[in-house]
Amino acid sequence: MKFKTIIIAALVAVIGTSCDPKSYLDVNTNPNQLPTASPSFVFTNALNTSARNIAGNTDGQGSSEIGFYWSGQWTQGNGYIINTAQFAYQFTNGDFNYWDPYYDNLQDYQFVIDNADANSQKYLKGPSKVMKAMLYQHLVDMYGNLPYSDALKATTSLAPKFDDQKAVYESLIALLDEAITDLKANAFASAFTGSDIVFAGNITKWVQFANSLKMRILIRQSKVSGRDTYIKTEVNKIVTEGSGFITASEVTVGGPSFFLATAGKLNPVYDRWGYDANGAKRALNNYPRLTQFLVNSLKASGDTLRLKRIAYANGGENSSTPGVSTLKEVAANYSGTPFGASSGYLPANTTSLGPSLIVKGEYNRPYILMTASEVQFLLAEAKQRFTDVTLPNTAKAYFEEGIVQSFRVLGANTAGAAAFKGSKIQNYDWDASTDKLAAIAIQKWISFVNFNGLEAWAEYRRTNLPVIPQSIQVPDNKRPVRFFYPNTESGSNTANVTAQGNIDAFATKLFWDVD
């Protein structure tokens, strides 16, 4: 395994001083002398790095991006050479290496956990453990078995053993329990709340985030045989803990007090797909397109309020009126691109990423890690599957609130969500939906659009919903169910990678992908 040792030296601060988030890339050091790193500076940079690793930026693709494609939400715009790894599924262990940047990022959080006490910054341990749990959950969902118990030990374990993915999932629940204990015991020092570019030192919100991640990890296993009692017990423990879940707001990184109109310091999504620091369009601005399946599905259900926030009308954003489409924003002017199409769908004739994600000049939006809408749909599924859990509301109430929160985060009028009650529209109107779990899965899928591609792909693999078209570039029904272990890991940790057996990216399913 690749371990990062130099990065700590690049994140230097005088121990005991507060962190100015705007200076996270402005630390000057003597290259001939290894200085002392403050956990607060490492923590701030680690959060920013997490956002970049997930979202991507001008350095390359993030983990969420491939999820948008493989969950059937985004496709490639015409005018670019077709990416055969993404849309023909012709990839090897040299493609899609999210492993190395994730483990590098995990090493940062581990540094904070290991050094917080000695630097009188105990309040950073809980948040770092929450982030560590989230990143490991992502890694399991991409790769399956992986180094956990023997990992993040620097030179003492250069070839760490792999842990069983199911055991790692269980360990993450225990890690989040530890995080909650640490959070409740260690309030942020007021001078250091600026180092927390997620919740600005709000311990309650960090605990709610931890509980929300627990729900994600638990419900991901809900179709696995023999897990019902374990899942119900853990859900009831969350209810007993009493802090609740994130509600009516998102878990975000950065924002106006952090991202700047300076090269390398923009919101990572804006930086990759939108504009540069001077407002010039990025070369990849026309690359991601909303799929024909997504656009037509929303139209067919009368879900045009969300459509107009998810996508710009054909022709894209009006350069002189940021946030508004060039064409009139009526349903007829929204045209999706068939998944994997390489010709016939030019930018002027198709929809692009909408104002919920990119508006010219809004370079300092916070980057979203988790939405309140996702949490409501997790709670809806928990209550629908396990009617005896102690969650206080009904599955219907959670489901309907999930749609409301999806409208809210997109910037659509939430009255539009209420209009679906009693509408008789399948998978929108709870009472009219014949398969309640399918309705939850499909609404959750919609709620992920533009915000969390990795979760959308994981949920698609778990539920097989919605029934999305195969890529035009693929002649059969095979779809990726995971990634190969990267060649960097097989080169440096050969025996342990080999011990995982012959990995087939189209057949070697993860433990929670049971059908």
Automatic annotation (TrEMBL):
Gene3D superfamilies: 1.25.40.390. Keywords: Lipoprotein. The keyword Ribosomal protein does not apply. This is SusD/RagB family nutrient-binding outer membrane lipoprotein. It comes from Spirosoma endbachense.
